[in-house]
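Feature request, filed as a ticket because there's no other form

It would be nice if the structure record came with a short human-readable summary line next to the tokens. Right now we just get the raw output. Example of a typical job, pasted below so the devs can see what we mean:
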Amino acid sequence: MAACMWWRAVQRGAQSAAALLGRRKVVRESPRRWLNLQEYQSKKLMQDSGVAVQRFFVADTATEALEAAKRLSK
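Raw output as currently delivered:
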């Protein structure tokens, strides 16, 4: 039961799981970042920062995918 309450506290972003469980002493927790990037997004960020990445194109349709494949084969 306590573990379930602790996990709910973490999910809700409570300052401390101990606070939810009724303990007075609160331990300082480091902030968490929830960064979720797709591969093409991270490649674009690295490319913009000067990191060498493979050439890529994002395609939303079959036609765009065919055009991207032609550009990559050049």
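Something like this underneath would help us a lot:
The CA atoms of residues 4 and 10 lie 10 Å apart.
Residues 62-73 form the longest helix (12 residues).
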